[in-house]
Design goal:
One of its GO terms (molecular function) is hydrolase activity, acting on ester bonds. This protein is 21% helix and 27% strand. It is α/β, with parallel strands linked by helices and 471 residues long. The chain folds into two domains: 273 residues, Rossmann fold, CATH 3.40.50; 99 residues, Immunoglobulins (Immunoglobulin-like), CATH 2.60.40.10.
């Protein structure tokens, strides 16, 4: 069934397939295939020309972090909007494979500046839109690309709805940690030990303009000199401060353009989906030795309005743009960052635009239900660790313990266990729980957490992805 709108999905960092000049996949999987390409960091260096070729259909794991897949999101949109396979098309190296499609999967070179990717997004939309109005759904960094198209490039004039899901509109301290300290597998001794094993990946990331645009747009570093923006910290080298300064000014340009666009096109709806309650890098400080440390503590120099933590990657205070203050332009969602890529709430919101009346196309910021917060990092292969769990919005009796089931994601390759496994769970002193994760082969795994006997709702459940990497 054709839609009256053109719906475009823009993925996050790592969510697009990339191929070289010979159409050999360097990152991702072949269109229609499921096995992930072997990863070699040097092939993703910024000076190696690559071309986007569709979205990831299965979850993947870079050597230092998990990346979302978009097969579930596309499937949910198809069901909700009653679309056939012919109504969905990817953007390949030669353009949109089916220009008449109602749902377009926009892949892009996630190494490049958002302005470059947004320019390509504009060209794709203009080539297939015809007389249709547009709905754009951007996950994570894809929301920044979409917002640049909307505000700077004039997309607001043809857009009925811009939907961002887990987007770091004000940046993410994880990017600060990667660029200054190098990529690692989490915090603490394990993270420190992994940094020297990931030197190649760190050097590659330092060349990506896109990662600098993910730096916190807010004062994030606590130091003897005061509370600083990343580009103001003199402890970093000139190479970092210069690039961080360019990224900061890019965000100022984006915000100015979006203010003007909102005034010109007030009928163009905006909605940011965000999460709270998950362990999320949110602040940074300079230790007595002059080294930068990132922390999952909320910055105490801001009023975070009770929005503790974030979605595991994006702090809740970053998930809405500076120029957007209305509670009707943000909606809470309970998922962890990777699982938000196919958020049921975002899918339902998009579907509202195909209804005859749009009076209910709005949101709210109150977390009005119980949900399970998660705290975990990428795991090194064959290394035992723990998943942190916490019930938010309700309380249960002592002794009530959640059930955690882990299963390998299909199609990710590798010699991984085929059967689901139940993890051992123990209560912690602070009222949460820890689920013991055994040493596992590399790849992507989905875990489901369910908790019974929760007052008012009886059962609370959540699901997310974790990457096990070789480092």
């Amino acid at each position: 069934m054709s839609l009256k709108h053109l719906v475009v999905v823009v993925p996050g960092i790592g969510g697009s397939n990339l191929v070289d000049g010979k159409e050999r996949r360097v990152w991702g999987h072949d269109l229609g295939a499921l096995a992930m390409a072997p990863f070699r960091a040097e092939e993703l260096a910024i000076d190696n020309p690559l071309v986007p070729a569709g979205l990831l259909r299965v979850s993947g794991a870079l050597p230092w972090t998990g990346v979302a897949s978009y097969g579930r999101l596309i499937a949910k949109l198809k069901r909700r909007l009653q679309l056939s396979n012919d109504d969905v098309s990817a953007v390949g190296p030669q353009g949109v494979l089916n220009p008449a499609a109602s749902l377009v999967e926009f892949g892009y070179d996630f190494r490049q500046p958002m302005a470059d990717s947004a320019g390509r997004l504009r060209a794709v939309i203009n080539s297939v839109r015809g007389n249709r109005r547009v709905i754009v759904v951007g996950h994570s960094m894809g929301g920044l690309v979409a917002r640049w198209w909307w505000g700077v490039l004039g997309g607001h004039r043809v857009c009925d709805g811009l939907v961002t899901v887990g987007t770091p509109h004000r940046g993410a301290p994880k990017a600060l940690d990667w660029l200054v300290n190098g990529v690692s597998l989490g915090l603490g001794p394990v993270g420190a030990a992994s940094r020297h094993l990931l030197t190649d990946a760190s050097q590659v990331l330092q060349g990506w303009p896109s990662v600098y645009e993910l730096l916190p747009r807010y004062r994030v570093i606590k130091s003897e000199a005061g509370i600083l923006y990343p580009h103001e910290w003199e402890g970093a080298g000139d190479w970092f401060r210069d690039r961080a300064g360019v990224a900061y000014r890019t965000h100022l340009e984006l915000e100015t353009a979006c203010v003007a666009a909102t005034e010109e096109s007030p009928q163009s709806a905006f909605m940011a989906f965000y999460a709270t309650g998950h362990g999320t890098l949110s602040s940074a400080f300079v230790d007595r030795d002059g080294r930068l440390r990132v922390s999952k503590d909320d910055p105490d120099w801001f009023d975070t309005k009770g929005w503790k933590g974030g979605d595991g990657t994006v702090p809740s205070l970053s998930a809405t743009p500076v120029e957007r203050e209305s509670v009707n332009e943000r909606t809470w969602s309970p998922e962890h960052h990777l699982a938000m890529a196919d958020s049921d709430r975002a899918v339902a919101y998009v579907a509202q635009f195909e209804q005859d009346g749009k009076g209910n196309v709005r949101g709210g910021s109150d977390e009005d239900e119980a949900w399970i917060g998660l705290d975990y990092d990428v795991v090194r292969v064959e290394t035992s660790t723990a998943l942190g769990l916490r019930l938010n919005g309700a309380e249960v009796d002592d002794g009530v313990v959640p059930q955690v089931i882990l299963k390998a994601e299909p199609g990710d390759g590798g010699d991984r266990p085929a059967d689901a496994m139940r993890l051992e769970v123990a209560q912690t002193a602070d009222g949460g729980w820890e689920a013991g994760l055994p040493g596992l082969p590399p790849g992507s795994y989905r875990f489901t957490v369910s908790l019974d006997h929760v007052p008012g709702v009886d059962r609370v459940e959540t699901s997310s992805l974790i990457g096990v990497v070789e480092a």
